[in-house]
Structure formats: structure tokens, C-alpha cells
Design a protein that fits this description.
This protein has 343 residues and is mostly beta strands. It contains no helices and 29 strands. The strands form seven sheets. Strands 1, 2, 3, 4 and 29 form a five-stranded antiparallel β-sheet that branches.
């Protein structure tokens, strides 16, 4: 069955905005991409659960904000709203179903910006959550909120602050607004960037951009986090010149993958069934420059890796028993792509 993906990225060289693209899991190949909309710097996108609503980061008139699209019956994405609530564009976006709220992580501003799409499809900027602080690394002179996404029932929002080494847990009220519930301070210099949730256990896995680690975290009943294990994704002599990027987990909760920029590898881990701890099984070259984002395909049999600088998507097949990856092809042009999302 043909799969659909949305590509977001920078627009500094060849890219013009957000694109759609089809992937054929029977052949392990992509078709050509199609431009959805011309946008300025749409570096991240998010979709609703039913995949008929799309939100993308955009910059307009020196303001950062969100553009929303709805999928028509003939398969076209049509813009329905846009709103700009900050001076700097964000770097990550997530969507909450019941309140139709959109959470934008702002790296340079150190904020979580909350937007809401009302019943008339008007997009409003409704809340700003400001972070403060710093840490020990040269890239941690101030707060850098890099990620904000929800647990399975969308009652809690987990926020990675790369600049302060803190993962914050926020309670979400009925209308989607946030209040701080707890914080976890990681090892200084970690730079938490993104995280994923285990599909069956009360566990979270976070990737550290600055020290190239993956941290296993236990989730308490109140949503607070505590550390269980920290592993290093790449050889120690490569850490200083590298940067952790994306992290993904398989649907069965048996394997975890991370990408590392500049060292340009994917690292595969097996996940222990008893306690969720990690054991490295593979480190493999991504066959491209700056693997900023990647995704497991809808069957979990392929890993699709977007490259920011070399402009191509690499396809890997995946051994579902061992978790190991095998290079398939690197032929799909996707300029400046830093986000690949399932549609």
C-alpha cells in the first residue's frame, strides 16, 4: 500500500516550502515530491490523528508563526488559517486533538507558544510559556526550547529545553493551556533535544544533542520523570564535533533508533522487555550529510532518513528480529529537508 509523507525544511537554497511525497514499501522507493505550499523556513510540521489537518512553521514579515491546512476530498491541501505570535520562527510543532491547540517550541526565544484553532477555523495565539536559565556548554547561554509533545492521552506536555538541560512536564487543561507540573534536570551539557514514548511501558527516551546520549526515563503516575540509564550513541572521540538529532521507537517497543549529525550515522538499540533499558546493536552510515530527521515507515520495515545538506532521502530496510538496518537506496531528491512526517 502506497504511503504518504510530508516534507518540511529550510528554504535557504533550493527548497520552496512544504512538499508531499509517496513511498512504495513493496519496492522501497519514493516517487517525486509535490509542492503543497510555498513557505519561508517550514522546518517542522504536525498532523492531526486522522491526517486531514496539517500545521507548518512559517516566517512572514519578520514574524514567526503557524499556517494550517485541511485536506480536501480530492487530496489537495488547502490553507485555512495562519497566525504569527513571535518575533522568531519555532523549531518544532505538535497538535492536540480535543482542544485543537498547537504547541510551538521556540529555540531562540526559549518559549512554548500555544495557538488554538477555533470552530470557525480562526487561528489564535493564546499563551506563551517562557523558560529561563542556562548550563555549562557553549551553546547553553540561555534557554533553547527544542521540543514539546504529549503523552498518549494528551493530558501532559513534555518539553525539552536544550539550553538548560531540563525536561519539563506541563499539565494541559480542557482548553489546551499549560501549567508546570514538574521538572527533571539532566546531566549538565546534555542538551535534551527530542524524546519518544514507549508504546506500552511508562518510559520515555530522550536524545541529548550536545553529548550525543540517549537517556532512559521512567514516568511516575503523576507524569514526573526519573533517570534509569544513559548510553552514548557514538564513539567518545566523535562527540565533540557531532550533534544528536532525531529519535524514534518501533511500534512493538522492541527497538530504538537515533540520528547523529556531522558524524552522520544512525544508531540502533534493542530495548529490554523487562525494564526498557538499551543495548546497542548497530551504528550505520546514513549515506548523506546532516541526518536531521528520519522516520520509520508505516510498516516498521523501512527507515527513511532526510538529509539537510546533501538533499536526498536515504532508504534503509530493517530486520524486525535483530533491529539492524541495511542500505537500500539514496535516490530521492528532497532539498534542505529537516522534517519527514507520516501523512
Amino acid at each position: 500500500m502506497i504511503q504518504n509523507y510530508i516534507l518540511g525544511g529550510y528554504t535557504k537554497r533550493k527548497n520552496k516550502g512544504i512538499h508531499s511525497i509517496e513511498f512504495n514499501p513493496e519496492t522501497g522507493t519514493f516517487g517525486s515530491s509535490s509542492l503543497i505550499s510555498e513557505l519561508d523556513g517550514p522546518t517542522f510540521v504536525a498532523l492531526s490523528e486522522d491526517k486531514d489537518l496539517l500545521c507548518a512553521i512559517h516566517k512572514q514579515d519578520n514574524k514567526g508563526g503557524i499556517v494550517a491546512y485541511r485536506l480536501s476530498q480530492d487530496g489537495q491541501w488547502n490553507e485555512i488559517a495562519r497566525s504569527f505570535g513571535s518575533d522568531i520562527p519555532g523549531c518544532h510543532v505538535s497538535f492536540r486533538e480535543t482542544s485543537r491547540t498547537i504547541y510551538v517550541s521556540n529555540y531562540h526565544g526559549g518559549t512554548v507558544d500555544v495557538y488554538q484553532l477555533d470552530d470557525n477555523d480562526t487561528l489564535n495565539h493564546v499563551q506563551v510559556v517562557q523558560h529561563e536559565g542556562s548550563s555549562v556548554h557553549k551553546n547553553q547561554q540561555s534557554s533553547h526550547v527544542h521540543f514539546a509533545d504529549m503523552n498518549a492521552d494528551q493530558t501532559l506536555l513534555y518539553v525539552c529545553d536544550l539550553g538548560t538541560d531540563i525536561i519539563s512536564t506541563y499539565s494541559i487543561d480542557d482548553v489546551g493551556q499549560l501549567s508546570l507540573a514538574s521538572e527533571l534536570k539532566l546531566t549538565p551539557g546534555t542538551g535534551p533535544r527530542h524524546l519518544v514514548f514507549h508504546p506500552a511501558k511508562p518510559l520515555v527516551y530522550a536524545i541529548g544533542e550536545l553529548n550525543s546520549t540517549t537517556i532512559v526515563l521512567e514516568v511516575a503516575k503523576d507524569g514526573s520523570l526519573s533517570e534509569i540509564q544513559t548510553v552514548t550513541n557514538i564513539p567518545n572521540d566523535q562527540i565533540e564535533e557531532s550533534a544528536g538529532a532525531a529519535i524514534r521507537i518501533t511500534k512493538d517497543g522492541k527497538f530504538l533508533y537515533t540520528s547523529t549529525r556531522f558524524h552522520n550515522v544512525l544508531t540502533a538499540y534493542s530495548i529490554a522487555s523487562e525494564d526498557g533499558t538499551l543495548e546497542k546493536v548497530q551504528e550505520i552510515d546514513t549515506v548523506g550529510q546532516i541526518p536531521r530527521d528520519f522516520i520509520l515507515d508505516m510498516t516498521d520495515q523501512f527507515v527513511l532518513v532526510a538529509h539537510q545538506d546533501s538533499d536526498y532521502i536515504t532508504v534503509f530496510s530493517r530486520n524486525t528480529e535483530t533491529g539492524e538496518l541495511k542500505f537500500v537506496n539514496n535516490e530521492t531528491f528532497a532539498p534542505e529537508c529537516v522534517c519527514i512526517a507520516s501523512a
